[in-house]
Amino acid sequence: MVILITGGAGFIGSHLSEQLLQQGHQVVCIDNLNEYIYCSALKRENLSTLAQYDNFIFIKGDIRDKEALQQLLVDYQCELVIHLAAYAGVRPSVMEPEKFFEINVNGTLAVLEAMRKAGVRRMIMASSSSVYGNSTARQFKETDAADQPISPYAASKRAAELVAYSYHSLHQFDITCLRLFTVFGPRQRPEMAIRKFIERIQAEQPIDVYGDGQSIRNYTYISDVVNAFLKAMDKPTGFNVYNIAGPTTTSLLETIEVIEKQVGKQSQLTYKPEQAGDMRQTAADISKAQQELGYFPQVEFEEGIGRVIDWMMRESSKQLLVACK
């Protein structure tokens, strides 16, 4: 299959591209390699891994350029679009909401419109657990209301889902939205909590804890996320939404304790007020994904943390992580 992946040079995109290439698919990656959230050298490092495959094509470009995107879809006879390109991060979105809506909403619209004109009707898109807002449900279900986002990032991801649904309704697109719960693993962005905690504990530097440390996250290891996309490829669904999450939830303080144990050092904690836009908890009911996609997460949180630490130790020898802090 010929697959166009938007944002394919990033954290999730590079892992998914690599797996698809190994399975023999042709992957056409479009990414603008911007440095808004993090250093583009990390994305270029990801691309150097993917470039080893003969069935990989990289195009530097912007998803908002509908005409160029349409031409790519036609020229390479793409059969599926996996839409990952987005601005990510709750806190940056509070500071610059316009940028998030421009890319996450208008960018998604541009991709869908290019697909319509090119005659491509299948999309799998990355959404986010943030769309649930500060739900008090013990576990979030896809049928729960997602109409009270508490950050511009969350609002932009929910809006992208709704735009996608309109293309399903009007143009009979087959679209699967995967609501991803706090993805972590090798190649993750420098500002993400787990990577920052590991770096600070290793360097014996203090960690800022916002709130009381009891906020809950349903961390999902990157290989489980990749597997979810592969499962979704096998099941065109009309339009459907699935929660994709790891097997357990973990509090902020428990997360730090797991890292302390594996690094072999104690952390220094500095407590600060909660930050606007941060969710109190994320906890997924994944029964729908289990039943309809056959998705079952395999990597426990502690095992995933160990893999991230090992990766960071290997990469530190290249000085790339240091240079991109």
Q: Care to describe what's here?
A:
- The protein is of the alpha/beta class.
- The protein has helices at 11-22, 40-50, 66-75, 90-95, 97-118, 152-171, 193-202, 222-233, 252-263, 287-293, 301-316, 320-323, and strands at 2-6, 26-31, 56-60, 80-83, 122-128, 174-180, 183-184, 206-210, 216-217, 220-221, 239-244, 250-251, 268-272.
- It has one domain: NAD(P)-binding Rossmann-like Domain (Rossmann fold).
- The chain starts with a strand and ends with a helix.
- It is 44% helix and 18% strand.
- The longest helix has 22 residues, at 97-118.
- The chain is built from twelve helices and 13 strands.
Large-scale geometry: globular
CATH superfamily: NAD(P)-binding Rossmann-like Domain
Helix proportion range: 40-55%
- Named at the architecture level, the CATH assignment is 3-Layer(aba) Sandwich
Poorly predicted ranges (pLDDT <50, ≥5 residues)?
Answer: none
- Quick one: biggest sheet? 7 strands, parallel
How big a fraction of the residues is strand?
15-25%
Q: Strand sequence of the main sheet, in spatial order? A: 3-2-1-4-5-6-11
Question: What is the CATH first-level class name?
Answer: Alpha Beta
What is the end-to-end distance? 37 Å
Number of helices: 12
Question: Total strand count, please?
Answer: 13
Computed Rg: 19 Å
